[in-house]
What we know:
Blueprint: E1 2-7, E2 12-28, E3 38-55, E4 58-72, H1 74-77, E5 84-96, E6 100-107, E7 138-148, E8 151-159, E9 166-176, E10 179-188, E11 203-214, E12 216-227, E13 234-246, E14 252-263, E15 277-289, E16 293-302, E17 307-317, E18 322-333, E19 356-364
Antiparallel strand pairs: 1-2, 2-3, 2-19, 3-4, 4-5, 5-6, 6-7, 7-8, 8-9, 9-10, 10-11, 11-12, 12-13, 13-14, 14-15, 15-16, 16-17, 17-18, 18-19
Amino acid sequence: MSGFSFNSLLWAFDIDFEGRFRTGSQWVVDPPAFHKDFDSDLELRLGFLGTLLEKDNWVLDFEFSADALQVDGPSEQAGLREETELDFFRAWLRLDNGESKIRGGRQKILFGSGSIFRPLGLFDTRDVTGVVPQTRGVDGLRVTHFLSPTTLIETWLIPAKKNDAFIFGLRGELFWNDIEAGAMVQYHPKSDLEGLPGFNQEMVQMGYHLKGEMEVGFWNESRLDIEMKPSEPTQFDTVLGIDYTFDLGEGLHVLAEYFFTTRSKGFSLIDTKGQRSYQQIGIAVDQPVGIDIKWQIFCIYDLRDQSLQWIPQIEYALTDTLFLYAHGRVGGVLKSGEKNGRLFQKTGTFNGTEPLVGLTLVNYF
Length: 365
């Protein structure tokens, strides 16, 4: 929905309003004792974006949006989600002349080639298997400069909110012989950014990604972390992926990724099973059916503890802006014995891996 605009030779001001309404409820098939059977949420997001100033080749634009979320059910009972949340989703200003961009405020910082597994998702809080996944973003300053239409360098500075420290990173990206390639390095002090992995570790992190296509799409994304301890222990994550669209129906897209992680002795261990190395495989299949329906299914399998998750979903476009999602989750462990895997756990409290089926309605405006 457009608002108002005023333009002159020196400056311009225009604004667009946007938002979304989302509500959904999931029936938990076998909830733990004393937990509710339905996990429900209600979200309203309102925002506006536009241009504040245009002068010569420079543009000052902005985005501000806030959302309110109300949750009820076993995820709130178990403390996995807050009952009520009200916060900014995006809140940034950007100065842009085409070649250089300076953006400050709450923003998403995403790069890399991985789809299901994201070693370079340093600030990615998405659940990629969820309904309409979006990262919350971080508060910081990011500067991007394009050396050419296909080559850039970028740096970021993010308050760690602990001991007046800052997270600082630098990356470059280019196309080389039809292959997208990038490399990054970051200093990560101990922080209070609890939503991010390894938030309370002091590390130097470095990584790269490659992505190309030769009939079959392929990519590799890897990251090495060096923890700032006397022995400088390390952690290494890597993902190898391929995808292909088969000429079946209106296109059957199949994607597969292999993920491997390992930590040396002395590196802070946050794995739920206390293991330093494991491997996982992720598969995603999706296909449109006509112009209104699209189905997809994720399967993620842990090769070490043999736990898995199946996450099916059907999207139905009721109108151009109103979408209905039918989705579910089925988890399990293939081996006999204790049901305590990384991808599925059978515990006395709700842990977020339980089987469920649900409906979600999303309206954009």
